Amino acid sequence: PGAVRYSDSIAGGAVTLVYPRAALLEYQGGLDPVLQKRIGPGARARPVDVAGARGLFITGVREIDVLDRDRHVLQATRSIARADVLVWQRGGVAFRLETRDGLRRALAIARSIG
């Protein structure tokens, strides 16, 4: 990545890896039920499978509310890459991948993460 950022504003901390056409945010927490209810007007969420995990590919959104590991709603987070967003969780870790390269590439990247 071109940059690595850490924030302790999310319970347990969060790491963001920033690439030229993508950004990946990882934090302890969950996705349900906030994303489906609060992605905002004009956004579209498509359910996807991320290596057996349920995920959402979201287009037309620039802010997404997330939950910390204690299921508290965090302040909306702004897009880093100004791109579409793939969100999923695995093993108590939530992932948010922003990419300008479409769903196929987003899923390929997500599936490569252990």
What are the defining features of this structure?
single chain; 114 residues; mainly beta; 7-stranded antiparallel beta sheet; two-stranded antiparallel sheet; 2 helices; 13% helix
Task: Describe the fold and architecture.
The chain has helices at 34-38, 102-111, and strands at residues 3-7, 14-19, 22-28, 44-50, 53-59, 63-64, 77-78, 84-90, 93-99. The chain is globular, with a radius of gyration of 13 Å. The chain starts with a strand and ends with a helix. The chain has 114 residues and is mainly β. The longest helix has 10 residues, at 102-111. The mean pLDDT is 79.
Helix content: 10-25%
Q: How many β-strands, per DSSP?
A: 9
Overall structural class, as computed from helix and strand content, comes to mainly beta
Quote the average pLDDT: 79
For the termini, the CA-CA separation is 17 Å
Q: Low-confidence segments, ≥5 residues, pLDDT <50?
A: none
- H/I helix tally: 2
> What spatial order of strands do you see in the largest sheet?
1-2-3-9-8-5-4
Largest sheet: 7 strands, antiparallel
User: Globular, elongated, flat, extended or rod-shaped: what is the shape?
Assistant: globular
Question: SSE order in H/E notation?
Answer: EEEHEEEEEEH
Q: Beta-strand percentage?
A: 35-45%
Radius of gyration: 13 Å
Could you provide a short overview of the structure?
The protein has 114 residues and is mainly β. It contains 2 helices and 9 strands. It has helices spanning 34-38, 102-111; strands at 3-7, 14-19, 22-28, 44-50, 53-59, 63-64, 77-78, 84-90, 93-99.
